[in-house]
Amino acid sequence: MTTHAAEQALQGRPMRSVALEAEQLTRRFGGLVAVNRVSFDVGEGEIFGLIGPNGAGKTTLFNMMTGLQRPSSGSVRYRGAEISTLRPDEIARRGLARTFQNIRLFGNLSALENVMIARHVHTRSGVIGGILALPLARREEQHTHERACELLDLIGLLGRAHQEARTFPYGDQRRLEIARALALEPTLLLLDEPAAGMNTNEKQELSIFIRGIRDRFKLTVLLIEHHVPLVMGLCDRIAVLNFGQLIALGAPEQVRQDPAVIDAYLGAE
Amino acid sequence: MAVFFATYGSLIVAMMLAAMLALSLYLPLLAGQLSLASPGFYALGGYVAAIISTRVVPFDSATQAYVWRLGAHEILRFPGPLYPVSLLIVEMLVASVLSAVLAVALGLPALRLRGIYLLLATIAFVEILQVVTQVLDLTGGAIGIFNIPQPFASQLGYAWVVVPLLVLSAFFVYRLERIRVGRAFTAIREDELAAAAMGINLTYHKVLAFTMGAVLAGIVGVISAHSINTWNSRQGTFDAGIAYLAFVLIGGSRTFLGPIVGGIVLYALPEVLRGIAAIPGLPPALAQLLKDGRLIIYGLLLVLGTIFFPQGLIRPNLFRRRKFEATRQVPGQV
Fold it and tell me: Which of A85, A170, B63, B83 falls between 20 and 30 A from A191, CA-CA?
């Protein structure tokens, strides 16, 4: 880490503190190497985009960062601590929250319950306290309810707080999933294709929304996205993956002109 | 009225016990874990009661049991001394602790299995326990333990313990569904992966839900052993597990009221059917089925129930409409 910072200083770039570091991250599925020795880091407060064609290994990378899959080799550090060997719930406790490419809300539960569930790590009342409604548990329940309502208000779903999550339109489900992730009070938010299935207008709004929550909640955001204009406009830096390899890394302008990226997206020649 | 209670006292008590057994299966199901381990813990609780009351505590139950066998219909009060209720409570505590310890020991490895494999592991547990109790001297071998003393003068007297227990366990599960731990359970039921990503420790909560169900089944076993008066390896078997499952699935698996209603209604069903079978003029085959086909009828109801009422008879939606209207204003107020 220190050498890394020194390197940056030498290169004359402003000092920034690193939030997330992936180092030589590799994941094999049998003979297939889904992610091959990928290294990059994400600075605090950055909006970092991860793009690449289908099957490039973006979601696998996400899964390794959130503990759903173990890396075959390599490491993931968050704020200096190794997290790739932790369970998903332990990683969530360290301030990493995520959404899923194929929305994974608790479909039969209400929008409110969905968000309240994610307050789990910030509450600690147990079975007995809860059942007897002892003061601590009661206070926590009330606070959980209030916080959940605030977040639903933020995404404009407060009026339908008691509606079952699976009955919401697609775009609302995506935003509800973000609200649920925010209820964890994360410091790093990982969004897996947040704009999938949205129209241009909605994508525009989402872009503004993501910037808004980054500033409001002082987040670092790591997002996977297919829609290139959205990523170019929103992200501070972009990493491009192709067949599990990191082929480009840098500011949007830089990446856009990178011949390897153009090859990957448009085909060689 | 007195005659009614004298005749049906044991049935009424057993119906309430069935409701609690259904709850004991419902608790792990709340966290998405389909387990048929309840009969095993029920058997364990029964043996705890039988061993303590006949072997550990010096209590002369011979006279009492003799009178008992004359028939419950004629005798409403026992002439003999009654087994102290305080000891009954001690037995329940011992059974709870043992069930909890065993549930954690069994749950930690078993709950790594999912779906049908967990189910098979819990069935294996019930079978193993049955074989072990058939062999051990402590549990009376294949014959079992007889002359378990009576803490109450009549079968209906058990209601003094069973009614408060049922109310308590119903309240427990009712509250559980509305608090942090219960929310973690339902999150796991809905989507394990997402629940983990939201910071919920899967193993801890699965084992917790499993243990809660085990403790409840163990307590019911204690009461049953006294109420039945004898305990052996035919108590708490695989078929009993299927019956409890029927209670939950037909009653409803989405709210605590489902298993309670399911347990009470379905346990009483064979008695009602027996009454119907006694109506003169029925074809003999039908009368026979109504009288003896308890398991066939449960099986049939399970199939029909899952087709026509996949969520069971008692569904949360039945209450939600009103709840929704009532809480509509809440967001504005908060």
Answer: A85
What pLDDT is recorded for position A252? 93
- Confidence (pLDDT) at B60: 61
Mark yes or no for CB contact B180/A120 under 8 Å. Answer: yes
Residue with tokens 């929550």: A213
**Cβ–Cβ < 8 Å for B58, B192:** no
**Please, is B309 exposed, middle or buried when counting C-beta atoms within 10 Å of its C-beta (0-12, 13-18, 19+)?**
middle
Closest to B129 measured CA to CA, from B43, B214, B242: B43
Check B199 against A180: CB less than 8 A apart: no
Q: Quick check: B10 and B72 in contact, CB under 8 A?
A: yes
For B217, half-sphere exposure in the C-beta direction (CA atoms, 13 angstrom radius) is 35
| pLDDT at residue A7 greater than cutoff 70 | no
Q: Give the model's confidence band at B168: pLDDT under 50 very low, under 70 low, under 90 confident, else very high.
A: very high
Which pLDDT does position A158 carry in this prediction?
96
ipTM surpassing 0.95, yes or no? Answer: no
Mean pLDDT of A170-182: 95
pLDDT at A249 (0 to 100): 94
Answer whether A100 sits within 8 Å of B194, measured CB to CB.
yes
**pLDDT of A49:** 96
Q: What angle do CA B134, B129, B101 make, to 5 degrees?
A: 135
Residue B1: pLDDT band (50, 70, 90) is low
pLDDT digits (tens, 9 = 90+) for A208-250: 999 999 999 999 999 998 888 889 999 999 999 999 999 999 9
SS3 state at A189: strand
Q: Which of residues 149-208 of B touch A (CB under 8 A)?
A: 171-172, 175-176, 179-184, 186-187, 190-191, 193-202, 208
**Matching residue, tokens 């759903």:** A68
Q: CB distance B180–A92 less than 8 Å?
A: no
Instruction: Judge whether residue A63 has pLDDT over 80.
Output: yes
A107 → chain B, closest CA residue: B190
User: In which order are the strands placed within the sheet that holds A32-43?
Assistant: A32-43, A18-29, A73-78, A81-82
Q: Are B20 and B14 in contact (CB under 8 A)?
A: no
**Does the beta carbon of A207 lie under 8 angstroms from any beta carbon of chain B?**
no
Residue type, A176: L
> Quick check: B193 and A131 CB within 8 A?
no
Query: How far does the CA of residue B146 sit from the closest CA of chain A (Å)?
Result: 37
The whole-number pLDDT of residue B63 equals 52
What DSSP character marks residue B54?
Answer: I
Q: What's the CA angle centered on B135, arms B134 and B140, to 5 degrees?
A: 65
In a 13 Å sphere around the CA of B16, the CA atoms on its Cβ side amount to 24
Contact B194 A104 (CB under 8 A): yes
Q: Who contacts A249 (Cβ-Cβ below 8 Å, separation ≥6)?
A: A40, A237, A238, A239, A240, A255
- What percent of chain B clears pLDDT 90, i.e. is strictly above it? 57
Q: What is the pTM of this model?
A: 0.89
Q: Residue B202: CB partners within 8 Å, gap ≥ 6?
A: A89, B188, B192, B195, B196
Between the alpha carbon of residue A190 and those of residues A46, A208, A222, A230, B195, the distances in Å are: 12, 16, 5, 16, 16
Give the whole-angstrom CA distance, residue A248 versus residue A193.
19
